[in-house]
Write a structure and sequence with these properties.
The protein is mainly β and about 290 residues long. The chain has one helix at about 225, and strands at about 10, 15-20, 30, 35-40, 45-50, 50-55, 55-60, 70-75, 95-100, 100-105, 105-110, 110-115, 125, 135-140, 150-155, 165-175, 175-180, 190-195, 200-205, 205-210, 215-220, 230-235, 235-240, 245-250, 255, 275. The strands form six sheets. The protein has a six-stranded parallel beta sheet with strand order 1-3-6-9-22-26, with no helix packed on it. Strands 2-4-7-12-24-23 form a six-stranded mixed beta sheet, with no helix packed on it. Strands 13-20-15-16-17-14 form a six-stranded antiparallel beta sheet, with no helix packed on it. A hairpin with a 2-residue loop joins strand 10 (about 100-105) and strand 11. The radius of gyration is 22 Å and the shape is elongated. The two termini are about 35 Å apart.
Length: about 290
């Protein structure tokens, strides 16, 4: 098979298992009816307007063998990007990663997305000591193994929610994190007790790790802040004459960047960052 050219529509037919071991050029759309597996030998990325899996598989690591390098799926587009319509299934839309099932000789064939980044361990920890505006180090209640250059978020502890802020890690030593830039706001870690000491309550900022090695990114563009048109991931099912042809999505340690699409509020077309529709039960793995 010849490599694709820029802005090409690429189809992987049923019965074909393709291994991605290069970075392809920017694509128009990618349709997966067979399987596409990203080889875990180097950092990789795919940029396209849409990825649609129907009865196929898109694999970036597995639950028992996460992807050890970095992978970015970059979805581009805006409010004017043409939708990918679906019949007898939830609409895929645009700037989207979607998975559905299909059938062959009346036998259901499910579709799969498997995306699993490196386990980061504890991803949310409470602040162990009050951090003041201007501080460049913070103390957590627990030790973490977060990497330098990762992005974290500190929750607001005042009445002003906008004091929630992001920061970048310079280094980690046990439960002490050094930041690349000083904090803009004060974040509390304190406790108070009722008279007599019958009850103690705590006010502690939450500190969360945002960075993951596997990312789904809604590509930025000039009108992004105005249009609020980010990436969407849809795990859904076809209803073929009453037979459900499901798609399945399994994600762990995956980062979503600029997700969700403003302007849609219909239950049958949710434009959240990640939506499961008519696809059965889900399991929260806290990843």
């Amino acid at each position: 098979m010849l490599p694709p050219s820029t802005n090409e529509v690429v189809q992987i037919p049923g019965g074909v298992w393709m291994i991605l071991d290069v970075d392809p050029p920017k694509l128009k759309r990618l349709f997966i009816y067979g399987a596409l597996e990203v080889e875990d030998t180097a950092d990789r990325s795919i940029e396209t307007e849409l990825v649609l899996i129907q009865g196929g598989s898109f694999i970036v690591g597995r639950e028992d063998a996460p992807f050890t390098h970095k992978f970015d799926l970059i979805l581009h587009g805006n409010h004017l990007t043409e939708d990918q319509p679906m019949y007898d299934a939830p609409n895929c839309g645009a700037k989207a990663l979607c998975v559905y099932g299909t059938s062959a000789r009346d036998s259901p064939i499910p579709g799969f997305i498997d995306m699993h980044g490196v386990d980061v361990g504890k991803s949310w920890v409470k602040l162990g000591k009050t951090a003041n505006a201007g501080d460049t180090t913070i103390e957590l209640t627990e030790t973490v193994n977060w990497e330098a250059n990762s992005e974290i978020v500190l929750s607001a502890t005042s009445w002003e929610y906008k004091e929630t802020e992001k920061a970048v890690i310079a280094s980690v030593s046990g439960n002490i994190i050094t930041l690349t830039q000083p904090l803009q706001f004060k974040h509390l870690s304190s406790s108070s007790s009722l008279t007599g000491g019958s009850f103690t309550f705590y006010q502690q900022a939450e500190v969360g790790l945002l960075t993951r090695s596997v990312r789904i990114i809604g590509k930025d563009y000039a009108e992004q802040e105005e249009e609020q048109f980010g990436a969407r991931v849809l795990v859904a099912a076809f209803d073929k004459f009453g037979t459900i042809l499901p798609g399945y999505g399994r994600f762990s340690n995956v980062e979503f960047v600029r997700g969700g699409q403003e302007g849609w509020s219909d239950n049958y077309d949710p434009r959240y960052t990640l939506a499961f529709m008519n696809s059965g039960d889900h399991v929260d793995a806290d990843g």
